[in-house]
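Notebook entry, cofactor series.
This is the third protein in the set we're modelling with a bound small molecule. For this one the ligand is NAP. I'm keeping the input format identical across the series so the outputs can be compared line by line later. Sequence and SMILES below, as received.
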Amino acid sequence: MKTGDLKLGFIGFGHMAQGICRAIDRAKLIPRSQISFIRRDPAKMKKSEQEFGVTSSTLPTLVEKSDLIFICVRPAQLEQVLKDLAKLKMGSQKIITIAAGVKMAYFQKHLGRIPIIRAMPNMGSSVLEGMTVLSFQQNADAVLKEEAQAIFSCMGEVIEVPEELMDISCGLSASGPGFVFRMIEAFAKAGEAHGLPYPKALKMAAQTFAGAARLVLKGGNPKDLIAQIATPNGTTEAGFKVMDESKTDQSLSSAIQAATKRSKELSHEFF
Ligand SMILES: NC(=O)c1ccc[n+]([C@@H]2O[C@H](COP(=O)([O-])OP(=O)(O)OC[C@H]3O[C@@H](n4cnc5c(N)ncnc54)[C@H](OP(=O)(O)O)[C@@H]3O)[C@@H](O)[C@H]2O)c1
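Returned structure with ligand:
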């Protein structure tokens, strides 16, 4: 089956599911008529139908009609969804879960040995600058892998890792935008403190992050780029001295470690 022929079903249609749906639509990967969803709130269900041109459904119908089922509820809502799903007859459907910190084995505990993919998109997906980390079962079907890669490539970059590296991936790239927002805001506030109007300082900060990230994505090595920008006794070097004294690198590393630890704790809660 070609990716464009797939029928998708979303269980949960909040921020992340909507972002995925929007990207699929913009890329014209799968027609909206082949996408259905369920969510709890009837008013929001209607609104989502109107906004996205996709069909609201019931769980049994969604399962029956879908080739690929995306589970996009929050981890706390997952157990109920899996209990409801377990009551239904699953045929050749495959599952993609985006729940942070929940291992594939938890899904199999409820649903048996179904084909399942774990995907960890991040907030950048909503502006097609996402970073999605995918993890597959051993012996995962090559076609299913390709389908997942095609879908998440619509919204940015895709990297595959073994499942044991999902917690660090969550700490780095799923929580990562949050850490970067804090840094952008700190840059902007520093600009404001020295006389720049906040909106101008914010734009300078955000574009500085975007440009620096683009240089690295184009193949630049951070070490070489740092050597290029930091002339001896210059302005950047003066700033680096303070970053070294205040152990900025270590504190960023600790933030990622803390997010990774929390992801591990969550995965233990789900067993
Ligand atoms: N935010 C991120 O950056 C990020 C990154 C990676 C992964 N994730 C994962 O993405 C998942 C979704 O996050 P989100 O931010 O999109 O959450 P969200 O906006 O709260 O959306 C959750 C959706 O699940 C629906 N729902 C809840 N219980 C349900 C049930 N029993 N049956 C059907 N639908 C149900 C809700 O419906 P109603 O609104 O109608 O109640 C809502 O549409 C989470 O597991 C999170 O870990 C998030």
